[in-house]
């Protein structure tokens, strides 16, 4: 069974068709990238999957369950995590404290009990495991305010993992990163794929082509191609859509 199955998805903003009859599947453990020129509808798609935007038509199934009309928190409880939604990073807290709070949130306790987090040993081990997974264990005790941008983006992913997701929705995780930070993020995502289904929206084509099992190309909301990286690289319609953008031709 597919982890995610999107059928006939349509999103209209007045007269503008931002998602145009989109079908998409993500298999368990697959890293599926969505690429497309600016305004192609990538963020609109992620928002419909995470539940912040209601589709005009079509359906979204997660592990066979129709979640099209479910609110964000119910989707999250079923295992859908959108990494950029982590706006509640406490910069004055350490890296591990932030992950412990996310682990605590998953277990259903309220954020208002944050003062207890420091002393709760049951949160420490899961948080350390996650930090080990994302490669942040060596900065576990550093306040978030003092870590670099790349480390913060890794922390956002760590906090998504604390939600015990099945499908991670990543909206431009490499944005604003230096070359070496992007390389680290590629290494991290390579480690995570296989364990989690990942939908990746990313403008960094070298990262996309290095990581994706499959790529869907959107142009004006419409999927014009879907396939393995080597198929997408050769695809005539894709090349035409990206004319002048030399990365894809590389
Ligand atoms: N809330 C909204 N109301 C009206 N139009 C919108 C809204 N959100 C997005 N759009 C339009 O829908 C289209 C798709 O936008 P979207 O942001 O999803 O594209 P994108 O592929 O994520 O672009 P980028 O690569 O620049 O982030 C654009 O034409 C955009 O102007």
From TrEMBL:
GO terms for cellular component: plasma membrane. Keywords: ATP-binding, Nucleotide-binding, Transport. Pfam families: ABC_tran, BCA_ABC_TP_C. InterPro entries: AAA+_ATPase, ABC_AA/LPS_Transport, ABC_transporter-like_ATP-bd, BCA_ABC_TP_C, P-loop_NTPase. GO terms for molecular function: ATP binding; ATP hydrolysis activity. SUPFAM superfamilies: P-loop containing nucleoside triphosphate hydrolases. Residues 4-245 form the ABC transporter domain. It comes from the Bacteria. PANTHER family: ABC TRANSPORTER ATP-BINDING PROTEIN (PTHR45772:SF2), CONSERVED COMPONENT OF ABC TRANSPORTER FOR NATURAL AMINO ACIDS-RELATED (PTHR45772). This is Branched-chain amino acid ABC transporter substrate-binding protein. It comes from Skermanella stibiiresistens SB22. The lineage of its organism: Bacteria, Pseudomonadati, Pseudomonadota, Alphaproteobacteria, Rhodospirillales.
């Amino acid at each position: 069974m597919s982890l995610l199955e999107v059928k006939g998805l349509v999103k209209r903003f007045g007269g503008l068709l931002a998602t145009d009859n989109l079908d998409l599947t993500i298999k368990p453990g697959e890293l599926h990238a969505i690429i497309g020129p600016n305004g192609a509808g990538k963020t609109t798609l992620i928002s419909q999957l995470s539940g912040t935007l209601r589709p005009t038509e079509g359906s979204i199934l997660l592990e066979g369950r129709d979640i099209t009309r479910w609110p964000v928190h119910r989707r999250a409880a079923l295992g859908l995590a959108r990494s950029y939604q982590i706006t509640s990073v406490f910069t004055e807290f350490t890296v591990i404290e932030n992950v412990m709070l996310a682990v605590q949130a998953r277990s259903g306790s309220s954020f208002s009990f944050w003062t207890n987090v420091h002393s709760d040993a049951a949160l420490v081990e899961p948080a350390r495991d996650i930090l080990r997974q994302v490669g942040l264990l060596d900065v576990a005790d550093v306040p978030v305010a003092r870590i670099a941008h790349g480390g913060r983006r890794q922390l956002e992913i760590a906090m998504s993992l604390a939600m015990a997701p099945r499908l991670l929705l990543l909206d431009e995780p490499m944005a604003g990163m230096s070359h070496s930070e992007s390389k680290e993020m590629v290494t991290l995502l390579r480690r995570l794929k296989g364990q989690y289904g990942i939908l990746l929206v990313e403008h960094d084509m070298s990262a996309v082509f290095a990581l994706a099992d499959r790529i869907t190309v959107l142009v004006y909301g419409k999927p014009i191609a879907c396939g393995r990286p080597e198929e997408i690289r050769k695809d005539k319609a894709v090349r035409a859509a990206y004319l002048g953008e030399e990365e894809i031709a590389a």
